[in-house]
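Lecture 7 notes: from sequence to structure.
We start with the chain below.
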Amino acid sequence: TPLPQLRAAGARRIYVFATHGVFCDNALERIGREPDIHEVVVTDTVPLPKNYDRLSRGKVVQVSVSSVVAAVISRMHHKENIRDTYLATSGVMSSSEEERTHENG
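Predicted structure tokens for the same chain:
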């Protein structure tokens, strides 16, 4: 595991990100006991056990992808570009949107 190397390189907090939170065997308990892991962020694409928060000692955080999926469906239905869907749903402008905003004042 690279966690000790990250600490040795000066990392103060270690965050882990994964698309699908598939935790096998006692992975949630191991995450909870791991002092080097500050937080594990996963999407809600796979259901977690009801007690995942307790098992991981609050280190596993699940975020929803529903707004992104809804935006993609809407853009496809309206025959719009889906390339910047994440940027649109997160409130961040793409570079092309920024250019249009500056052009229009």
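Points to note: DSSP finds six helices and three strands in the chain. The mean pLDDT is 84.
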